[in-house]
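#structure-requests
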Amino acid sequence: MPMPVPIYQVDAFARRPFAGNPAAVCPLAAWLPAGLMQQIAAENNLAETAFFIPLDGEEADFHLRWFTPTFEIDLCGHATLAAAHVLWNERGFARPEIIFQSKSGLLRVRREADGRLVLDFPSRPPRPLGAGEYPAAVLAQALGPGAAVPQAVLAARDLVAVFASAAEVLALKPDFAALLGLDYLGLVATAPGSGGVDFVSRFFAPEVGVPEDPVTGSAHSTLIPYWAERLGKTELFARQESARGGELWCRLRGDRVDIGGYAVTYMAGALTTLPEA
């Protein structure tokens, strides 16, 4: 019988349980078959399950992979934050910076004195889309009945719809089946914030089994360069306005972005009934 696999559930971009975005984290000694890791992610039924293995004598400390319930993804912020939290708080990692190897290159996470964790991610600026460059009728249907018309539509990995106000973003009731016709991994809805919040967002990705993601670090690789240019500042504070909500401290650094947040361990256990590889 295979050895049990440790598993942790962490609420990322949150200072308390039941907020932010829950991610599962499985430290491994060596990779499990990709199909089995996908099955574990589907069984967990969280937005992401992260798996990592140690690397010896290489530039990175660990190799990190992320799985939604249906798909292995190229970049995930909240599960990277969760993996770093597990290493520092549950697995005894001692250095103040962790370097992960990933499908998106080397990703660094540092721990600040107050316990905030800061992701060093690639910047993915969006490009404006003109009429005819995206299915406008599908987008209108996907945004749901009574939705405001976006002021602008942009694209990077995800389609980005920019609205006039946070109220318009909060009012969205998207048609998840229609979202599948947009041909992007996800749809980001964003608008200016208020009361010390520079911008807000929501993120929908039914294509990869995540109808609405509570807090999406990877989307901020695109939102940070957009809002930094629009607002004329490189340090920003953001909120993702899902039902659980999340806080993100953001900074633009040329072709990289810093995405900071807190995390808390909700649950720790072990997977004990995995099949033989």
